Amino acid sequence: MDRLRSLLLPLSGLAAAALLWAAGTAWLAGVSPIAAAFSPLAALRAFEPLFGDSYIWTHIGVSLKRVAVGLAAALAVGVPLGILTGVSRRFASATGTLFQFLRMVSPLSWMPLAVMALGVGDAPVFFLLAFAALWPILLNTAAGVAQLDRNWLTLARSLSATRRETVLRVIVPGITAHILTGARLAIGIIWIILVPAEMLGVSAGLGYFILDTRDRLAYAELMAAILLIGFLGFLIDYGARRLHDRWLHQA
Amino acid sequence: MNAPTPAAGLAASAPPAAAPDAVLEGAGLGFGYGVGDAVFRDVSLKVERREIVCLLGASGCGKSTLLRVLAGLESADAGAVRFLGQPLTSPHPRSALVFQQASLLPWLTVERNAAFGLDFTHQPRIAEAVRRARVASALAAVGLAGREKAWPAELSGGMAQRVALARALAREPELLFADEPFSALDAITRAEMQSLLVELVHRWHAAVLLVTHDIDEAILVADRILLMGGRPGGILAEWTVDIERPRSAAPEAVARLRLEILEALRRSSLR
């Protein structure tokens, strides 16, 4: 019963939004007939050819691959930097201001630079996504290190653990929950940056597809793509949250 | 540096450093940041094989720091520590540590926590089967057989401390260092754990250096009590406790010793 209610309320919120959407497009259609293509029903109808032709899968696949590469790169750079920040006070104070500064520059600002330096194609998109995702991972990792139980480190020392054993057996698992929190935030950011990042210099991906539908005047498909982006983002975040909870379940 | 310096008020009939019966020997130990505010100075003590020694003192008297020095976690500014006759520069593989907090690793099951560190590079090589057997018998000894797959988050404070004890025992230590291991537990659990500790270290043939501020704990557990105090810290007095176990069965002798220790504490704080 509670389960039903906890499902019913979010669904009614979604339904209300869909109704507002329908009412808005119906009203706009009176002003300019083209708006009818933006209606929820048109969008739903557009889903069929979208998946029927299966070319949307290519775009989804390309986008998901970019998310994965961006996240992996951000983890590869952010986790070691975060550990260094958490372990070394000197490194933390030397880089703190720089990191806060860089963090506040919208990643998309780097787009022209990234295209110039890395050329047209996937590379600048990977760079932008990784750059955007770096900060939450770095900051959460550093916070995780700061919150490590000192006794764990003493325990490792009392076992004459090598540096490698201390890092791999105590520090990394000890901060995994924090890293997962950072990764989850990073995925959210990546997903948001992804669409605009794919609007320049690439020929596939969900961001590219949005511009493509606009150019083809396929507005119903555009709305369907927006729905799809929201839905996929929701799924990814749900997955990340489940993973996080699963780890914490043990913690 | 090799000859133990006799400390005032201590029976200083220490045999030469290579004495086979001493597990741990600290001689002329000093630790402090400046000359003026040393934490402790000129401390000498010995722990014999299978002996339970309690280092008793008020909070902040430097006893935990002394334990860290003796365990090889910190190096002394003066004096030397010998473990099984050898100079100690880093934690010895035949020693184990228990803290006030169980400090279990929350991402490992009870079983894996108890086994933690057995496979580290600088630990003695043992076969996988031996490792399993040791962990199983340590967990059974602390009463946790059947809970091997539980997660630390599912355990009470007392249970967690049992796992920490099993983790120490699984290493089959010659000497167990314990820093206020039971002071975070409730009174009933604490009493259980005190008698469990005595029983297990006897069964494991281990010696114990237990740091505590609890006089009753010291009397219930110790073969020998060292009273630490003063500024900088030093060992003020020593008692050999020859009350038969279980000591709760001899309340008068316990009460007598308790008064004696309290009196010594009072005198030291008046100085």
What does this protein look like?
The complex is a heterodimer of chains A (251) and B (271). Chain A has 251 residues and is mainly alpha-helical. Chain A has two domains: 1-38, no CATH class; 46-250, Orthogonal Bundle (MetI-like fold), CATH 1.10.3720. In chain A, 84% of the residues lie in helices and 0% in strands. Chain A has ten helices and no strands. Chain A has helices spanning 2-31, 40-52, 55-87, 89-103, 111-118, 122-146, 150-158, 163-197, 206-215, 219-250. In chain A, helix 9 runs antiparallel to helix 10 (219-250). The radius of gyration of chain A is 22 Å and the shape is globular. Chain B has 271 residues and is an alpha/beta fold. Chain B has a single domain (49-72, 88-270), classed as P-loop containing nucleotide triphosphate hydrolases (Rossmann fold), CATH 3.40.50.300. Helix content of chain B is 31%, strand content 23%. Chain B has seven helices and ten strands. Chain B has helices at 63-70, 110-115, 128-141, 157-169, 187-203, 215-221, 251-270; strands at 22-32, 38-48, 52-56, 78-83, 86-87, 95-98, 175-179, 207-212, 224-229, 234-240. In chain B, the strands form two sheets. Chain B has a six-stranded mixed β-sheet, with helices on both faces. Chain B has a four-stranded antiparallel β-sheet with strand order 2-1-4-5, covered by helices on one side. Mean pLDDT of chain B is 88; it is low at 1-19. The interface between A and B is medium-sized, with 22 and 22 residues.
